[in-house]
Amino acid sequence: MSTRIKAYIFLLAAVLLCGGGYFVSGMLRSDSDAARDAAKSEEAADDEAIPVAVETAALGPITRSLTSTANLRARREVAVATRAAGIVTAVRAEEGDYVAAGDLLCSLDDRELRIDLELARQRLAQTRIQFEAAGIRTEQTSTKLGNKRVELERNEEALAQGLLADSEVAVQRHEIQDLEHELRAVESTVRETRHRIDELESEIERAKLMISQTSVTAPFGGRITERTVELGQSVRVADQLFKLGSFSPLYADIFLPELDSREARPGQKVNIRVGAGEVESVAGEVERVSPVVDEATGTVKITARFEPPSGAFRPGAFVRVELETDTRRDAVLIPKQAVIEEDGDSYVVLVGEEGVARRKAVQLGYQSDVAIEVLAGVSVGESVVVAGQGKLKDGDQTRVIAE
Question: Under a CB-based contact definition with an 8 Å cutoff, are residues 362 and 346 in contact?
Answer without folding.
Answer: yes
